[in-house]
Each structure stands twice: as C-alpha cells, then as structure tokens.
Predict the 3D structure of the following.
Amino acid sequence: MQTLGIKTPSPGGAAADAEGARPGPGRGLSPLLAGAATAVGSVGALLAFIDSTSPVRGPCTLFFLLMAPAMAIAAALRGLDPFGRALCALAGAVVVNMLVAQGMLAVHRWSVRGGVVAVTVLSLAALLLVLIRERIYGKHTQE
C-alpha cells in the first residue's frame, strides 16, 4: 500500500479556481444561477397552481417538479462528489414525482395542483429533515 502525501496549494494555483474563488469575471455566477433557477421554479409552481394558459407553464412547471426534490435530495448527499450527487439527486427527483403520480392515480384523485402541492410538501419535508439532522449533529460535535 502506498501513502500519498497532501500537497499544499500554491497561492495562485488551480486549487483557488476549483473552489470558485478566482478573481475576474464569472466569479459570482453560482449565486446568480441559483437565483435564476429559484425564480423559474417559483414561476412554474405559481403558473401551475393558478391554472394559467401561458405557453411557459409546462417547461417552468417541469423544471420546478424536477428541481425542488432534486435540491432537497442533493442537500442530504453532501458527502458525494458533484457529478454523483447531481445524478443521484435527479434520479431521486424522478422517483418522488413518479410516487406522487402513482399515489394520485391509485386513489383516483389526479390533479395538477395536487401534484405540485404534494411534490412541494415532500421536498420541504426532506429539506427540513436535513436541516434538523445538521442541527442535531452540529450540537453533538460542539459538546
């Protein structure tokens, strides 16, 4: 077995670029994209909830239905590498949507509004469980 040493990053090295703290244009792109994704998802949920006939209702609602559970699942999978985390979160989001659809079909209560509300509630519950877990484990490590 070989022991690998930890290399210290140079002051202007690639490690600073990997963390997103590089100088120049594009350094604040992640918060901007997160805000835009939140806005598109919120518009999609709102358009589906008010039963709008807008042509952007379908794509925005689909974006919300995929991203809301995916973000909640991704928050729970912080230990994985980014690609694996994104893949697992997207697969989990599809599973959540399929379970909601299957449940609504099983009880003969199919509704677009009901589906959006159910996915929202499940996503918020998953995110709340992650926050509670972090708070509990955070207190245990400080004691």
